[in-house]
Amino acid sequence: MKENISHLALIVLCVLLMGCNSSTDGLAKSRSIININNDWLYLENNSNTIIDVLHENNWQEINLPHTWNALDATDIVPGYRRSASWYKKNLAIEKIDSGYNYQLYFEGANVESEVFVNGNKVGGHIGGYIGFSVDITDVIKSGSNEVLVRVDNSYNPEVIPSQKSDFFIFGGITRDVWLETLPKQHLSNLKISTPEVSETNAELLAEVSVNNSGLDSKVKASIFDNEGNEVSSSFFDIVEGRSNIMFKNIQNPKLWHTSSPNLYTLKVKLFDGNDTKDELSEKVGFRWFEFKDHGAFYLNGERLLLRGTHRHEEHAGVGAAMSNAQHRADMQLIKSMGANFVRLAHYPQDPEVYKACDELGLLVWDELPWCRGGVGNDTWKTNTKTMLKEIIEQNYNHPSIILWSLGNEIYWLPDFEDGDNPENINAFLKELNDYAHELDPSRKTAIRKYYEGADIVDVFSPSIWSGWYSGSYKSYQKAIDQYKKQYPHFLHAEYGGSSHVGRHSENPITGEGKIQSDGWEEAIVQTDVANIAQIGDWSENYIVDLFDWHLRISENDSTFVGNIQWAFKDFGTPLRPENAIPYMNQKGLVDRAGKPKDAFYVFKSYWSDEPFAYIESHTWKERQGPKGKARNISVYSNCDEVELLQNGKSLGTRKRNTLEFPASGLNWDVSFVNGSNGFKAIGKTRAGDTVSDTININYRYVKNSKARSLKLDYKVMDNGNYLITAIAIDGQGLRCLDYEEKVYFQCLNGGEAKVSQGTPTGSEVIEMANGQASIEILRHSEDKQLQVMVLNQSFKGTYLNIE
């Protein structure tokens, strides 16, 4: 691995110069980094030889990032393409200067890659979630240069993550690619540590490699605060190609904290005599942390309850090939919910994610992709240990990272004979743990759900899925009380459950009376025991209650480290073809396109400082029940008190109290009128400000009977597309609010359905939610008829013609 740490430093200052060939602002004129994402060609061909692919004439024009599994992973056909493909680009370099080095930097190519320039193999990489550089200095020429990249995501048990993992392994060049031009005399591998930090004083140590230094070469390092003021500056010697930088007694540092993520900048310049030859720049955060034995987590000497979630790297329509803007939007939404911690599951993620976490104030659990598969052969071990080294070296400088995770469920479903042998696993896990501490003594190691190795790592998460894979959510307090005593540094990662957007129930299935309520560890074979994942209704109501109960416990436990909800966004998985949206893990707080579900607002009510009120639920606007039967309305809000009005009449004001359940006491028993019921919630803050939310619920006193047919309706969306909605109706034309069967959409003429998105309106096969399902259609022309069909096994061929 070459130049990877220096590349991260460059990224901090880099402007995304799409196709531009000018130097990056803020860097020395002699160094440049140019984004070359645009104008690539793609060939879906798994040949091993360049000659074969160059004779092909069906190359497709694309821009990066790109994956060939963007849609086929989440379509309705079992499996997804696991093979190799080729990428090609004409790289124009106006003039080659012998005083410079040239290299390509790939932020990620999944899973194995080979890079060729002008017919010469210049490098490659094993592991799809880590960046790598290839030196092209000796093979390029002035003018046009042909770059070819072969990327392969075929099944290979010797490369983690295991193919048995519960997520798709997207193939392709899934992240940005850069052309870096460096002077022969240049800096690289800038590594920063802050060994001493307090409120009054801080120390910064750094190492930097100096390539091809001369007799008159020297290094100047300067620290600037977040307002651009110089804090300290000094010159440092170069010894055997390295310079050790030290700044002591940095007075009254502005500490990096999740609530105030103050960042300094370390600028390092390389001089040859009086001439500046090169410059690197990197962000620095001063902070310290501690996991108290059998107690809470402390950041900068103060107790901080870790309020976390998990993030998979994918998005509707593009899979893992997300833009930086999409990465940033995910992290901003996580922060807006009030989270202060994110576990990157189950692999290192795009550089933009770490940059966002540094800037937004999100602590990070960074994870080696040893996810299931057990321990492997010698080649597997070499690959895995190399990946750990690359992860730590590339991400070392990010103040947001506090944990290097060594894996997840590592003993499950072994890929090698005897791969689940605890003795063998523990021997290698200890080797990895020692190596992680050798590479980075300042951070802690972690692992989840491998009990035999709990005492090897610094921080351990057992598996507690109260109310989903085991027991009742009401057993959560008992579970954490036991594990706090059992594990010195216990952090609960993964809890929650699936919810299908728009599915609601007046009486969600809780498992009471059917499931042992005081159990909390799920069985390895989950079909062997009754659990809510198997018998539940997947309603948004149930998941809201589950999270509400968990948060009520965690927010009021002064000795609890914190917990990490699974997962922030719905994501694709090959292991769940029968889900309400096929091949989707629907445990997200937002759907795969980033639209919040009801559960998002539960977390926001506990965690966010931004005043808001949300009436549960905006996806539940059709309800039914006998006349005079009181129904519950909950409002999720972080305001001190909330008033609820029905059709303009106040139903009273409730005081918020997080010790109460549900909704911290913000709930009302309501007598609905037949027909339209308009509700308004008004939240009042301590400062006297108000926020509000409104919904209109259509309520009926007549219960629907058995579904007899499907009908189709439509509306034109704000983006100009058509939202086609299928509704199950009974013999009287009433919507069947209890109908949950799958339906199948097809756009027959005049348009194109948005399919394979893995979203509530972007799946051609989907279970109904309270007797309703929708799909988005792009209409080709208003002058031609649009024809859409929906059917299932019970109801054949309902058609909608839009003239």
UniProtKB/TrEMBL annotation:
Species the sequence originates in: Hyunsoonleella rubra
Any one GO MF term held by the record is: hydrolase activity
Family the UniProt entry places it in:
Belongs to the glycosyl hydrolase 2 family.
Annotated keywords: Glycosidase, Hydrolase
Query: Which part of the chain is the DUF4982 domain?
Result: 628-691
The protein's matches in Gene3D superfamilies, at most eight in alphabetical order, are given as:
Galactose-binding domain-like, Glycosidases, Immunoglobulins
The protein in question is named Glycoside hydrolase family 2 protein
Specify the Glycoside hydrolase family 2 catalytic domain's residue ranges.
292-607
- Name all Glycoside hydrolase family 2 immunoglobulin-like beta-sandwich domain ranges: 186-287
The organism sits in which domain of life? Bacteria
Fetch the SUPFAM superfamilies from UniProt: (Trans)glycosidases, beta-Galactosidase/glucuronidase domain, Galactose-binding domain-like
Glycosyl hydrolases family 2 sugar binding domain residues are: 81-183
